[in-house]
Design brief:
Elements lengths: L1 E9 L12 E3 L7 E3 L21 H4 L4 E8 L7 E2 L6 E3 L18 E3 L2 E2 L13 E7 L1 H4 L11 H13 L3 E7 L23 H10 L4 E7 L2 H5 L4 H17 L3 E5 L14 H16 L5 E3 L1 H5 L28 H10 L2 H5 L4
Parallel strand pairs: 9-10, 9-11, 11-12, 12-13
Antiparallel strand pairs: 1-2, 1-3, 1-4, 5-8, 6-7
Helix pairs in contact: 3-9, 4-6, 6-7
C-alpha cells in the first residue's frame, strides 16, 4: 500500500484545518510518499508543529490533531480501529489528494472509524509517565458519547492533567470484542472482530510504547461469555502479568464489571458466577501493584447488574445493553482509579 501527501495540523470545525497549522509529513529522510508491504508499519520523519508552544498549551487542551493522507490506487484490505467513536472525514473515491487543503469542501463523507494510522508519538518533557489502559470494548468506550471523549481512560487522563499537569500521558489500547486467551489461531483465514488475544497483542500494542510506566488492565468478560472457565481467565491474567513484570512495567488490575441481566451473552447467572470468581482472585492476589475496583464502582447492589443510571446508551440513545456503561458509568470508572497508585513505586 502506498500513502502520499500526509499532513498534520490542528482540526478546526468538521473536516477543516485551522489556517496556517497544516504541515507536511515526510518519510525516510524527506520523501512525500511511503510504500508499506502487507502487514508492515513505519514511522514518519519527525514533524514540527509550530502551534504547540508552552504559551499555547492551555488553549490546546482538548483540541484534536488532524492527520490527512491520500491512498494511491487500491489499498487492499484495510487496517482500522472500527469503533473509534470519533468522526473522521473522507473524500470521494478517485477524487485525488486533498490533504494539503484547509477547508472541508473536499471531504464530503464521514466515518466513525480510524484507518491505517496506528499511533502518534510526541516529544515530551523528561520524566513523563505513560499509562496504557489495556482491554476490551469497555476500555475502547462502547456506549460512551460519540466525539465526547468520555471513555474511562479519557476521564482518568483529565483527572491526571488537572492534578499533575504534564507528568502523565494516557494511551487507550482497548479493542471491542477482545479476549485474553483467544482466538487461536488469529489470521486471515480465521478472522475475528475482536482482534488478536490480549496475550498475542501485548508486546505490539502496549509493551512497545515509548515511555511506558504503568498498565491498567481490565478484561475477561468476553472470554467468560464465550464459555471460558474462571481458571482459564485467571491463568491468562497470570501469564500476562508475568510478561509485564519481565518488561519492568507496573501493573494495576481492574475487576470485571457486571453484565448480569444484559441482552448480551454475558448476562447469564453462570457467566456472572465465573466473573465473581475471577474478581475474587483479583481482589485477593498479591500479583499486582494495585487493584482498581471497577465492579464496585458500577454494580447495583440490589440487582447485581450495572446501576440503572449507567445503562442508557450515550451514543445512540435507548436503554443500552446492560453490558457497556454510558457516559455516567464511564465517569464513575475513571473516578474509581486512585491516582496515588500511578505515582507509587513498583512492588
Amino acid at each position: 500500500m502506498t500513502l502520499d501527501d500526509v499532513f498534520a495540523g490542528l482540526q478546526g470545525a468538521a473536516a477543516s484545518v485551522v489556517s496556517g497549522t497544516n504541515r507536511r509529513v515526510t518519510f525516510n529522510g524527506g520523501r512525500n510518499a511511503i510504500t508499506l508491504p502487507p502487514g508492515q508499519s513505519a514511522f514518519s520523519d519527525p514533524v514540527a508543529l509550530p502551534l504547540v508552544t508552552r504559551a499555547s498549551l492551555a488553549l490546546l487542551d482538548g483540541r484534536k490533531l488532524a492527520v490527512s493522507f491520500h491512498v494511491v490506487e487500491s489499498s487492499g484490505p484495510m487496517t482500522w480501529h472500527a469503533k473509534a467513536l470519533q468522526t473522521s472525514y473522507v473524500s470521494a473515491p478517485g477524487a485525488g489528494s486533498h490533504g494539503a487543503e484547509e477547508s472541508d469542501a473536499a471531504f464530503p463523507f464521514s466515518t466513525t472509524s480510524w484507518y491505517f494510522l496506528d499511533a502518534v508519538e510526541a516529544r515530551v518533557p523528561d520524566g513523563l509517565r505513560v499509562i496504557a489502559c489495556f482491554g476490551d470494548s469497555i476500555t475502547d468506550g462502547t456506549g460512551s458519547t460519540l466525539n465526547g471523549d468520555d471513555r474511562w481512560p479519557d476521564i482518568l487522563s483529565r483527572r491526571l492533567r488537572a492534578a499533575s499537569g504534564s507528568r502523565f500521558a494516557v494511551v487507550n489500547a482497548g479493542i471491542g470484542g477482545n479476549r485474553i486467551t483467544g482466538p487461536n489461531p488469529y489470521d486471515t483465514k480465521t478472522p475475528f472482530a475482536g482482534g488478536p488475544s490480549a496475550l498475542d497483542r501485548l508486546d505490539r500494542d502496549v509493551l512497545s510504547l515509548s515511555g511506558l510506566s504503568t498498565i491498567i488492565w481490565l478484561e475477561g468478560i468476553n472470554d467468560l461469555s464465550s464459555g471460558a472457565s474462571a481458571e482459564a481467565v485467571i491463568d491468562g491474567i497470570k501469564e500476562g502479568v508475568r510478561r509485564i513484570r519481565a518488561h519492568g512495567t507496573r501493573i494495576l488490575m481492574g475487576t470485571i464489571t457486571s453484565a448480569l441481566g444484559s441482552t448480551a451473552a454475558a448476562g447469564t447467572a453462570d457467566v456472572d458466577a465465573r466473573r465473581q470468581a475471577v474478581n475474587a482472585f483479583i481482589r485477593s492476589s498479591d500479583l499486582f501493584d494495585g487493584v482498581i475496583d471497577f465492579d464496585a464502582a458500577t454494580r447495583d447492589p440490589r440487582t447485581g447488574g450495572l446501576r440503572p443510571e449507567f445503562q442508557p446508551n450515550s451514543s445512540i440513545g435507548g436503554p443500552g445493553d446492560g453490558l457497556h456503561p454510558n457516559r455516567a458509568g464511564y465517569l464513575a470508572m475513571g473516578n474509581a482509579v486512585d491516582v496515588k497508585l500511578l505515582a507509587a513505586p513498583r512492588k
